[in-house]
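INFO worker-7 received task bundle
INFO bundle size: 2
INFO processing item 0
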Amino acid sequence: MNEMNGLLTGSITLLLWTLLIFSLGMYKPKWPLFFIKEPNRFMIVALTLILFMVAWTLKGEGERRLRLAETEKQHATQIAPAPEPVPVPVPATEKPAK
């Protein structure tokens, strides 16, 4: 397909944010975890692992949906066989004799 799925775009975006959080957190853990009093690097590693698993799951689901859409498109384009003509009985025009 020419256009990307929303789940794939979201997973790539989440992976980029995860890399940014990881790199900033390894340099100064206080920057990405500004709301925690004493953050440490273990918290950064745990957070980035969780975000990485979520992003990878989104990527897998997006690829699965793309494959399903492609197979549905292939099934829709297949032409059904033409029906064969069936003989129709001609109605009687005269009344039968008693």
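INFO item 0 finished
INFO processing item 1
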Amino acid sequence: MKTLTMKTLRKQILLLLGSMTCLSVYLSLPASADSTANLILSLKCQNEYTVNIWKRHNSGELLYRATGPLGNLSLGKGTGNNTGSAQVYKFKNGEYEYQVLGGRGDHQGKGTLEVYKNGNSIFTQTCTPQ
């Protein structure tokens, strides 16, 4: 029983450290507005987190910007896919993948942020489009 508790504690600490590492990454672009890109999706998530998806004017590159009380995260080189019921945006950061789903049609007004580590889901949160 004690081994299970230590294993669980170790897993939680590693998850927290991984999340903090990801949130502390800064790229050259700010987490807020970018004059070279258009905002295509903005989601308000729990704990005062905001996730924005931008598309650069000249290259069409998709950009991920998340801001919140624990820090900001900026990622580039995203991909987009329209599934019919949702627009799915994916961004990679090392062993982490961030997926942002923006609802369409009957699912409009809904959004989801999902985080994967090495292909395993570690975080899912329903968000509200702004």
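INFO item 1 finished
INFO post-check item 1: The helical segments are 2-23.
INFO post-check item 1: The chain has one domain: 2-129.
INFO worker-7 idle
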